[in-house]
Each structure stands twice: as structure tokens, then as C-alpha cells.
Amino acid sequence: MVLLSLVVISTSCKKSSVKEPVDNATSGNVYISVDESFKLMIDAEIYTFEALYRSAHVNPLYKPDVDVINDFLGDSIRTIITTRKLTKEDEDYFRSKQIVARTTVIAHDALALIVNEKNKDTLMECYTVKDIFTNKINSWDQVNPKNKLGKIKIVFDNEKSGNVLYFKEKYKLDTILPENFMAAHSNEEVISYIENNPNAIGILSVNWISDKNDTVSQSFLSRINVVGVSSEDAPGSGSYYKPYQAYIADESYPFIRDVYMICRESYTGLGSGFTQFVAGEKGQRIILKSKLVPATMPLRIVELK
Q: Three-state SS across the chain?
């Protein structure tokens, strides 16, 4: 009996030392790090996912894109939503730790340029935008001699934001931004600054201003103007495109980017399950409603005369 008891105790200890996953694809508790540009869209995704799977709890941490990547390189966050792929150095780091990071494109986003409702110059050539961002044009009367709003100020959400990083890379800007750039502290503050400063241009993900069924987005739309920009393939043609879904899908609008979900789970956990949901039919319909372009759902573009 003593020997049998020892065997049972020994077996129990061995079983308890094995670390079993505490979650699966549709239940458990997981924290994800998310580029704050997509807060409205991801809030809607999580609300629907948790309504379908009552035992699942997805906790988003909304941060600037640089911090999102840094979270992923640590050990606490297994799933992120970002606008950039992992670099070769990042992949080598995970490979050295025998971790496979799986990347899924979930949407195509656009960066909208917004101006004060008093600013009537809401159509710009793509090369004019480039000259403004590189500080070759720094006053509104250089855009339009009749515009007397003064010096142009470019406002973005955060110094670590993927929004400003996009234009840094696109226009090969230095690490130190030109003096006409200014960092706010959130997307809401960008919109607030534009409302109170007629000379400013704001940079936002289209997710913040395009969902007419969302009360937050609708409130923003009523207080600012969205700039139309000419295509980089046909500058000077007289055609201008706002960041509408059709112009993102056919790439007429010049400032577009992909949105990625990257997961490092070694098993099918809740991070993997949520990624599959967002990339699936229900999740892609939410992205469509958020006015981004779904990455895994076929689209039909209808032209109305």
C-alpha cells in the first residue's frame, strides 16, 4: 500500500508539472497589442467575437505602432495588429528562440488627410502633398494664392505612430521631422487640433472618419473636411480621389497600406482563434463596414454614372 501510494503521488506530480494551455481558439483570456489607428474597427471585431463565444475574453492594448512591435518582441504579447511586417532581424530573433510568427493580411487601409472646415482647398495634386511634407511648400498661399490661412502645420497622433512612419518612408524624411510637423497624443487630439486651427493638415487612418454608422466617426466627419488627392499614376489629370473603399481597392488613392495580424502562438490558442475570426467571413464583413478594404473577401466595385 505504501509503494502504491508513492507511485500515485509521483504520477500526480509529473502530470502537474506539465504546463497545459489555459485557452483555445474560442475560450480563455488573451491580451493583444493593437495599433491605435484601428481602435474603432477592432472594438467592433472583439464585441462580435465575444458575443459569439461567451467564454472568450480578448483584451486589446491600443498603442503606437512602434510600441506594438516592441510588445511582440517581448514575451507577454502573443498576437498583434500592425501596419508593418516583421523585419528580417525580427524573424531571425524568433527563429533563434524556435518560435514561428505567422502573418495574416486582414485589411487594406488608407491614410486620410483632413483639414479645417473653413479651409476650401480640399483637392490637391499628389506632388503638392509631397512638397508640403518635405517642407518645400510651407504656406497655404503657395498652394492657392487666394488662401490666406498662413503657415501649414502637419499634425499626427504620436511620434511612434505608424501614420507618420508611412510618410517618413514614402518621402525619405530624416529621423528629425521638419519643423512644420507636430505630434499630438491621440487620434482624437488630431481631430480636435484640426477643428481649432484652420491652417493645419491632419493625418488619420480612414477607419476614424469613414464609418457613417458609427457615432464617433460620424461626429468627426461633421466637423472636418477630407482632402481629395490626385493619383500618382496620373498627376495633373484633374481627377482627385478621397480615401473611399473603391479607390483604395483599385489603388487610385495614393496613400494606402496593409494591415497585418501577427501571431506567435505554438498551439491553437485564443490569439490564433481571434485571428481566424477576423480573417474569416464575419470578421471581414466588419472590416467592410469600417470602410477599410477586406483582404480575404472578394469585392465587387460598381460604377454609378
A: CHHHHHHHHHHHHHHHHCCCCCCECCEEEEEEEEEHHHHHHHHHHHHHHHHHCCCEEEEEEEECHHHHHHHHHCCCCCEEEECCCCCHHHHHHHHHCCCCCEEEEEEEEEEEEEEECCCCCCEECHHHHHHHHCCCCCEHHHHCCCCCCCECEEEECCCCCHHHHHHHHHCCCCCCCCCCEEECCCHHHHHHHHHHCCCEEEEEEHHHCCCCCCHHHHHHHCCEEECEECCCCCCCCCCCECCCHHHHHCCCCCCEEEEEEEECCCCCCHHHHHHHHHHCHHHHHHHHHCCCEECCCCCCCCCCC
